[in-house]
Design brief:
Layout (H helix, E strand, L loop, with lengths): L7 H32 L1 H4 L10 E12 L3 E5 L4 E7 H12 L4 E12 L2 H15 L4 E6 L3 E2 L1 H7 L4 E4 L4 E2 L6 E2 L4 H7 L2 E6 L19 H26 L3 H9 L6 H6 L5 E2 L2 H11 L9 E4 H17 L5 E7 L2 E2 L5 E2 H13 L5 E8 L1 E3 H17 L2 E10 L1 H4 L6 E4 L4 E3 L4 E6 L1 H8 L22 H26 L3 H7 L4 E3 H7 L4 E2 L2 H11 L7 E4 L6 H13 L12 H15 L4 E3 L5 E2 L1
């Protein structure tokens, strides 16, 4: 009997068809399940927020605070990556102030990630909330109570800490990273081109120095002293301690633990969390702690903000707030000219909008993208006055895009200025030859037709690029001089790439007034003769039911643990982000002169 052979086709095609059919069926089932979940979302998902009488908002400031809230599913860790939006927080507190069912705020802080300007805006909003006669009780319960966390919580009516928590109160310090030694070992040389007198533009120093230049040290120390003075003054006012005494406490490192902070009257008492809950319960007249109605502030603020924006969008908004955050670039994930220009164009077309508040939180970036945004701001300001509100930082390109506005607000601790330009061209030829044995040869039609990182610039080529950088710097000076009503010579005296705090920027005329986004909105409304403010935030808020469902599941399953065990350490994330920023740089840059790790 002869053996019958099975051909490849007889094995492969039936198997392929079976797998294909099962895959299609699987996809259809998945689609039906997801569709069913979303379709029944109203029945099983988040219901309209029902607030009970005598409710206390539980405000947890943990993680990153950005200009707008966001939630994205992280497939690597299977958790929701959330960012609390400053606009949501401020709106939530403003709404809660007038909500008769809300009796107070229970504020808890831990692992907070934001700048001091954002921290001050939250602090001021809590201070305004207290004016309604409602209470704020704050609790610092983490392993370490950071200075920034304490700064926000010090505004509370009552402030407590976990008995064994350590606490830092040592003033402001900064650490800069320098890469010249690393580049020397790799035999990589960075050719730096700055504006001719941009000696304060120290963003490039890490690539050709091993420490700070005198000008860099001068500006860093100046703005830190200015910020520290503002922070001390505000803590002193609310804690009824002199700012001089606070400085002595920091100088002598008298605060190590919560008990020390209680001793020196920075904190009202050391308590366990259940004791604080019991205290809050008694404040609203409860006889039993279990009767305390604690409502998650994040959910309250997000819901109220979204509902407000839906109503405003369909009811003739008269004030537009454009939120812009991140590195300035033409396209990508940061503050992109592609998106921001479109938003300004949409606002100009919207006839009901009478004025614009442009919220900027950016260290700068691409000179080309900055100029594209500058153009849209200037065009809009001709028909609808643009008022700028600066966040934690609005420097270099971040200041460039603010310059054509009619009025500029900054917080005292905002980092701004840095009016300057630079470019960097690495020379990698020596490294590739000596480390990898690679060599290069060239052919071209013209003298400079092959300009790569594998050969150094000739003096002539360096001069050509220097002239281009100087031309962009001259344009920067001209843009600021027109926007601020100064001569270019006047602007040049405080430009040269130097960074200023909001307080110092006010003194030299770079900003018009100190205040946050609420102050900017009130000013814009007054100048536009608007009495009934209808504020629409851009980018427009959109409802995403699937994301909301995932958020709810995340809250249910991880209410006490929202940090993935496989996250990278923060310090590694910081260096990774630095490398991403460097890799994304193309062309001439208008960027803040340094990336600091401030403590």
């Amino acid at each position: 009997m002869t053996e019958k052979k099975l051909t490849f086709g007889k094995i492969f095609w039936p198997s392929f068809l079976a797998v294909f059919i099962m895959s299609v069926i699987g996809l259809l089932l998945f689609a039906l399940i997801i569709g069913g979940i979303i379709g029944s979302f109203g029945e099983f998902g988040p219901k309209p927020l029902a607030i009970k009488n005598n409710t206390v908002l539980h405000m947890t400031l943990d993680g990153e605070i950005s200009e707008k809230s966001s939630s994205t599913f992280n497939p690597a860790s299977f958790v929701m990556d959330k960012k609390n939006g400053l606009s949501d927080i401020l709106f939530g507190l403003e709404h809660a102030k007038n909500d008769t069912k809300i009796k107070g705020v229970f504020l808890e802080l831990g692992n907070l990630n934001c700048g001091y300007a954002s921290a001050r805006e939250i602090r001021n909003a809590l201070k305004d909330f207290k004016k309604s006669g409602k209470f704020v009780v704050a609790y610092n319960g983490g392993e370490v109570i950071t200075q920034k966390e304490y700064y926000i919580s010090s505004v509370a009516n009552e402030l407590y800490g976990f008995p064994t928590s350590t606490m830092e109160f040592i003033g402001l310090g900064a650490e800069l990273s320098f890469f010249k030694g690393t580049l020397d070992k790799l035999e990589v040389e960075v050719q730096v081109i700055r504006g001719s007198n941009n000696d304060f533009k120290s963003a490039v120093e890490p690539f050709f120095r091993k420490n700070m230049s005198d000008s860099s040290r001068l500006q860093i120390e100046r703005y830190m002293h200015s910020m520290w003075e503002d922070i001390r003054n505000e803590i002193a006012e609310d804690r009824k301690i002199s700012d001089i005494r606070l400085n002595e406490i920091a100088d002598s490192v008298l605060i190590h633990r919560v008990d020390d902070a209680v001793k020196y009257k920075l904190i009202d008492g050391s308590k366990y969390r259940d004791e604080v809950i019991a205290l809050i319960s008694k404040k609203i007249g409860n006889t039993k702690e279990e009767d305390l109605n604690l409502q998650a502030f994040e959910k309250y603020a997000k819901k109220k903000f979204y509902q407000n924006q839906v109503l405003i969008k369909n009811n003739n908004p008269n004030i537009a707030v454009i939120l812009a955050e991140g590195n300035v670039m033409t396209d990508g994930d940061g503050l992109t000219s592609k998106e921001i220009c479109k938003l300004f164009q949409d606002v100009r077309k919207n006839k009901s909008i009478k004025t614009v508040v442009f919220r900027i939180n950016s260290p700068g970036g691409s000179a080309l993208a900055s100029d594209e945004i500058w153009r849209e701001v200037a065009l809009t300001n001709k028909t609808k006055k643009v008022v700028v509100s600066m966040g934690d930082v609005a420097a270099s390109g971040g200041y460039y895009i603010a310059a054509p506005a009619s009025y500029i607000f900054a917080e005292p601790t905002t980092i701004t200025g840095s009016i300057g330009v630079f470019g960097m061209i690495p020379f990698t030829g020596k490294m590739l030859e000596n480390k990898l044995g690679m060599t290069f040869d060239r052919a071209g039609t013209n003298k400079h037709s092959v300009m790569t990182t594998n050969r150094k610039l000739t003096p002539e080529e360096f001069t050509i690029i220097q002239e281009e950088v100087d031309a962009i710097y001259a344009q920067f000076l001209e843009r600021v001089s027109v926007g601020r009503g100064m001569t270019t010579e006047e602007v040049n005296t405080f430009a040269r790439g130097r960074v200023w705090t909001g307080t110092d920027a006010l003194a030299i005329g770079l900003v018009d007034e100190l205040g946050g986004i609420s102050s900017a909105i009130s000013y814009a409304a007054k100048k536009a003769s608007i009495k009934d403010k209808k504020i629409l935030y851009y980018p427009l808020k959109k409802s995403d039911k699937l994301t909301e469902l995932l958020e709810q599941l995340d809250e249910d399953e991880n209410s006490d643990l929202n940090i993935s065990s496989n996250q990278m350490p923060k310090e590694l994330i910081r260096y990774y982000n630095q490398l991403k920023d460097i890799e994304a740089m193309t062309g001439i840059q208008m960027r803040m002169p340094f990336d600091i790790n401030m403590h």
